[in-house]
Design brief:
The structure is a homodimer.
Chain A lengths: L2 E7 L7 H14 L4 E7 L3 H5 L3 E3 L5 H6 L22 H13 L2 E8 L1 H16 L5 E6 L15 H22 L6 E6 L6 H5 L10 E4 L7 H15 L2 E6 L27 H13 L3 E5 L2 H5 L6 H19 L5 E10 L2 E9 H4 L20 H7 L11 E2 L2 E2 L19
Parallel strand pairs in A: 1-2, 1-4, 4-5, 6-8, 6-9, 7-8
Antiparallel strand pairs in A: 2-3, 10-11, 12-13
Helix pairs in contact in A: 1-11, 4-5
Chain lengths: 416, 416
């Protein structure tokens, strides 16, 4: 008899994590002889711990297909980190119990580094506990920091959003620069790595001056001001893409300015207004600034077609690998060539994925520290190729909200 | 012999002001017997004052057609306000001199309230000075505050951007709300009127709780917190759309918090982080916030098809009216019906447009002051209908940058 499957979304959601969910569920539905019901965790792994299991078989084929073009986590996600096998023993054992109670033999965990680690541990522990689970990690993270895979689904769409937004805002500033705004500052995600900020550099080829502040490079105010001044003198304006992780040599984030509000509370601001005000103070230039925040990772309306296809493909491959008996692996994207862009899905061992963080290669950052190299462009450009628009209804994207009906619980309550 | 025309873009640019330019130039090219060369002001009206006249006949038909899908001001814009006829006498007289020197008989001025006023004054003065100019105002402003016309080209696309962004970010927050972010705050443009903020309310129909802070409504912290708390209790999360013009009863903007940086400088922030931190202090809820700034008005990638068509139509009609002998008028959009949405181009007298600001009707704001009414939805929805995607090349929109070659000057230098 076919075992059931459990699927959960983990950590920060993206524009295409649901495309992976779509890949998992649609592929499982095609293999009813091997996989019974796909249960999804309501709000991620918490759903497994609390036995809040959504019965995805109650969702129509049409609604599951709509996940492909719906951003966010269709079943809910969570930030809930399981630690070492000893430290979080009760949680791991509970997961296995829940899987056993619902005859779940496949575990598909869709997330970043932490979930790869959890996935790997469940595979190990379930064997020890005599209820072996095939644990497959489906890669997802806008941070693009998983090893082995060429990229992480979710990243390409953020990169496209940042590149397009930088281009459009730069055209705007260029129009206004004669008498008004000369500086546009866009703050982007990426606390530890500059992958997302790097995407802003892709518009340089359209004649737009862009200065990037990477978290990999210690902020040097004097050098930065000289660079901005030079670009404004040459072009009449300048766009700045600042990573939220940009920081001073002592490690303090640019965003932490020690400002206090009227009540003496530390004021949380962004890096963008700090950089913008600094330029005004030093160079006397009029500025505008934007903070993209969730807009960048939720922007399914502007998703990269490549990213959507890869997100779907890793979900699909995850199920196929599971059916073929694989365990403790992650479908990984292998880049075969840049031009034409060709890729295929390979297989990474979770033992080699867990707890390994891929950093941006330093030869992706230009010598002056404010731009990207040709090697970086060659890497990034294929990832933003193609558009994959959602359908619209009455002027707005026709995203799906699933029914998300949970099944009856069989186990005692588990306190989180 | 056909008189030449002068076209200038004024004030803040939009995603579709170039579509109006496209309408003007393409239509003029079809009427070579009536209109000679269309000159465009480099950086708006400043280009006329300094005799920096771009010869648009040197741009290919393909490049002019590309203006239809290129955001920003293709010829440059400026913030340069001409005042009363006496106060700015030298400037007005200079304009007429430049027009005379280059045999310009048609003046197309593409902007908001200030440019409508300038346009009207030029029409009056030129007659007095014995060199009559047909002055036509082409409406443009994301502020949507011009009278008579049903809407202002530029606004519909911003409204669509804000509605889509609110929808997408809200889906994101909904996914994360169980363990993480419960509040998302989006700051939008509109210092004096809540038209843009109102667009965030369009996503309520998709089950998204949205609380709007309008500039029309004095900020009442207690009432606001109660409203947010209620929405979070009901939905588990809440999105807030705050206008940059949201203010306290004493008129002070929410954004002005009196914060100081390490050097004692007043810190300019946005309203979004202020509102977000306030909610955290009062309700203890985790938040994210974004400031859309220029991204919202430059987002041609997400333009409303209705808006693009109307922007083109007012440009085209402006030229047709001019050819038919009209003067001191503005093509105005007349709404004929909501469902199906039908509209046509009418004609407004500049004497009735200049110095009149259209406010948002108070019956567009719900009784509690935090949402929009059905009347508002019925007004807004047609304006965001349809998509009109730009072509893409190598992953990015293939926007045009014009050659912008200016003609030889004939007059002495004019000091601004």
């Amino acid at each position: 008899m076919a075992k059931n499957a459990f699927y959960a979304q983990s950590g920060g959601v993206t524009a295409v994590i649901n495309a992976s969910a779509c890949g998992v569920i649609e592929t499982a539905r095609k293999h009813g002889d091997k996989i019974g019901t796909v249960y999804a965790g309501r709000n991620g792994i918490i759903g497994a711990l609390t036995e809040d299991l959504i019965d995805t078989s109650l969702e129509s084929d049409t609604d599951i297909a709509a996940l492909r073009y719906t951003p966010s986590g269709g079943f809910g996600s969570c930030r809930f980190k399981l630690r070492g096998l000893e430290e979080s023993k009760a949680e791991y054992e509970r997961l296995i119990e829940v899987f056993k109670a619902h005859d779940i033999g496949y575990f598909f965990y869709n997330g970043g580094g932490d979930s790869a680690d959890t996935c790997y541990k469940i595979s190990q522990l379930s064997e020890k506990m005599g209820y072996p689970i095939q644990a497959i990690h489906i890669p997802k993270t806008v941070d693009n920091d998983l090893p082995i895979t060429d990229t992480c689904p979710g990243f390409g769409s953020v990169a496209k959003y940042i590149a397009v937004s930088t281009l459009e805002a730069s055209f705007d500033v260029r129009s206004m620069a004669k008498t008004s705004t000369k500086i546009f500052v866009l703050e982007v995600m990426g606390r530890h790595a500059g992958w997302i900020a790097a995407a802003g550099g892709l518009v340089e080829d359209q004649g737009i001056p862009v200065v990037i502040l990477f978290p990999e490079i210690e902020f040097d105010k004097e050098k930065f001001m000289a660079r901005v001044k030079g670009r404004v003198e040459e072009h009449g304006f300048c766009s700045i893409v600042v990573s939220e992780g940009a920081h001073w040599p002592d490690g303090k984030f640019l965003a932490e300015q020690g400002t206090r509000d009227a009540f003496g509370h530390a004021q949380l601001g962004g890096a963008a207004p700090v950089v913008a005000n600094m330029i005004k103070d030093e160079l006397g230039l009029k500025f505008h600034w934007a903070v993209a925040d969730y807009l960048q990772r939720a922007a399914r309306h502007l998703a990269s077609k490549t990213d959507v296809e890869q997100a779907y493909a890793v979900g699909k491959a995850g199920v196929e690998f599971a059916i073929n008996g694989d365990n403790a692996i992650m479908p990984a994207i292998e880049r075969l060539s840049n031009d034409p862009f060709e890729w295929k899905i390979g297989k990474a061992l979770l033992s080699e994925v867990a707890n390994v963080e891929k950093m941006m290669p330093m030869d992706f950052i230009s010598d002056d520290g404010f731009g990207i190299t040709d090697a970086c462009k060659a890497y990034l450009l294929p990832l933003i190729q193609g558009e994959d628009y959602p359908p619209y209804k009455n002027g707005l994207p026709d995203y799906v909200t699933l029914k998300n009906i949970t099944i009856d619980k069989k186990l005692p309550v588990f306190e989180l």
